[in-house]
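User: Hey, quick favor. My workstation is busy. Could you predict this chain's structure for me?
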Amino acid sequence: MENWQSVINKGVISLSDDLVITSGYTFDQFRSTRYYERQNPERVFWLDEKYMFQGHSFMVSLFFRSGVIYMLSLLCCDLEFGMEEEEKRKELHDEILQSWGIERSDQEWGYVESVYDARSNISSINIVYKM
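Assistant: No problem, here it is.
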């Protein structure tokens, strides 16, 4: 993957040679990849593989709205956290983004942010695309 400053400037996330997510990426495009396993385009779904970005291992989820990518989420797997410790993963994500020189700022294509969702008890780095 390119450096993260390039991601911020372009909004392009290259998971593999045949799975490159960018603003406007459609579920139909995803359906034509080897990663398609009859996932429901109306629900958030996790990809089976883990991906390495800048020395960190991540699980990746995709969320489409009306057949177009809305959000790609990264969950760092470098450390194990128990259910009651998930907020510590948010701190790890904050540190990762800081080490990559990323702060939340709106871009033409969308934005990147680190979040903790108390309702689902999950922390992630979200790449959110404008619709």
